[in-house]
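Notes continue from the previous slide.

Worked example: a multi-chain complex. Inputs as given:
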Amino acid sequence: MPTRTVAVGSASGLHARPAKIFVEAAAAAPVKVTIRVGDKKPVPAKSMLSVLALGAKQGTEVTLEAEGDGAEQALTELATLLATDLDASDG
Amino acid sequence: MAEVAGLSGIGVCAGVAAGPLLRIADVPALPPPVAVTDAEAEIARASAALAEVVAFLEHRADRATDETVAEVLRAEAMMAGDEALLDGVRDHVEGGADAVHAVSLAFGTYREAFEAAGGYLAERVADLDDLRNRAVALLLGRPMPGVPQPGHPYVLAAKDLAPADTADLDPAQVMALVTEVGGPTSHTAILARALGLPAVVSCPGVLDIAEGTLVLVDGATGRVDAGVEQSVAEAAVRGAAEVAAAVAALTGPGQTSDGYGVKLLANVGSAKNVPAADEVHAEGVGLFRTELLFLDRTREPGRDEQVEAYREVFSAMRGRRVVIRTLDAGADKPLPFLNQEGEPNPALGVRGLRVARQRPEVLTTQLAAIAEARAQTGADVWVMAPMVSTITEAASFAAAVREAGLPRAGVMIEVPAAALRARDLLRVVDFLSIGTNDLSQYTFAADRMCGALADLLDPWQPALLQLIGICGEAGRAAGKPVGVCGEAAADAALAPILVGLGVTSLSMSPRAVPAVRAALAGVTEADCRRLAELAVAAPDATGARKAAGL
């Protein structure tokens, strides 16, 4: 199954605004994407509550998985988003 | 004629208002579980309730005028509409739970995960509880908890107000606030003063008044009359408005009837607050809080950005005194860029000037920015540090201020240790400013936010007044200014006592300035000293008020 493992780049972790941006992007993806921390249970990446409950901080490695048409591209885009510091646009 | 009931509490924001009383709806208790016969119907009920919560939050987000508030509401709507949450509800119903319990259990899973994660997520637990309570209330056919939005003016009654309630509080509808618990430094009191709403806290019995009863609230005396006639209420409100107008008509510098000058200053957070200060003829700014610039930031604001923010206030107050406080981070104001998470007891942790022990560059950058803004505007800028406990800390702060080329350095008195050594502090700094909220908290070992300890946080506590007196005496002996910039400075009845204790300036929410000016104009300096002696000698806060003739 296509997989990407990436360290969270946002300074405040995968919380608040960064989480919202990521979840919205995952919801817009053409395939069902899951996210997990380490060997824990994968959760749907488009679920805000599940993503928040991961408790991922800056530098936490998370793994994305998806299957089907467009999975590779969707994962690449989402992984790039996760690696970016989404707090940096705070101004 | 309805029966008139008189209740009394602590008045925390002066003013008289009347209106029908409405309560913040309680969080509904869970009824006993019911056996499920039609699982699909239960799931549909739960799903509909969650959808209604989502619609409610989105509607409120659309109406919110503040973009930050709107964004928070949309994020909450996203959580309430989360598919994984609904999956959880489905699992619990299939496991035999009814809709109400299934919703409650489904939220519970995330609640546990958020609590376990700590930090930011632990603070979001209250949001989850709010969503859960709304959905549960809908399923039980009860009003959703929260501040009522009836679309007409009313008096809001509650056990206490939480910071989260303040976002829902529409000043066009809420005429006055009455809470059963809470004290002079509770969120209710701070919010009331910011909005200029008459408010009474610590008022037992207010929650027993029937919804819709006409109540008359006097935020100065703390009296709440329920069941009054409309005409009586109207006359009282009109009378109070006339007195307020007469008080507001008094202008000019603060002074006693025999001409002893007391500077009346305003507390501001940004240039936005300056017009309000001008409106009440404040003689300057006694507390310019600089936290606003730093809040919610993952990085320290740059020097240029700081210069700009300070310059705005300095130039708006041109020719007048501006006392600026260096960053007061920590405790109830944690700042993300300082990574302060994980202190077991933040109120006693690395906060205020103590941050400079680990991050001296934050202070030096700020002082350099203040100096530059001063140079550009020529304002009369005084700089003070929060949370100073020792002479060594004060001396090193004063040295840093002078190093930055700034003429006047002072310290805040919030820690009893500093108050006790006021005389020594004034050998190394130019002025003192007493932050009565924190000084109360640390003197009485009582959390500022703990409503159950409101009586200990009363600024009329003689022990607090005694510490203020030590500072005042030290100021008189050194010929240096001693100000008060806590909530106590906004208490018009207390103003003469503070002056009698040796306080030379009072800094407060601009709205409080006219009443304080009027209170001082009604007494002589000798009266002030006599009242101060009586208040300090009183056995307790009630006795101190009695001694002052209240």
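Summary box: The longest helix of chain B spans residues 39-63. Chain B is about 45% helix and 15% strand.
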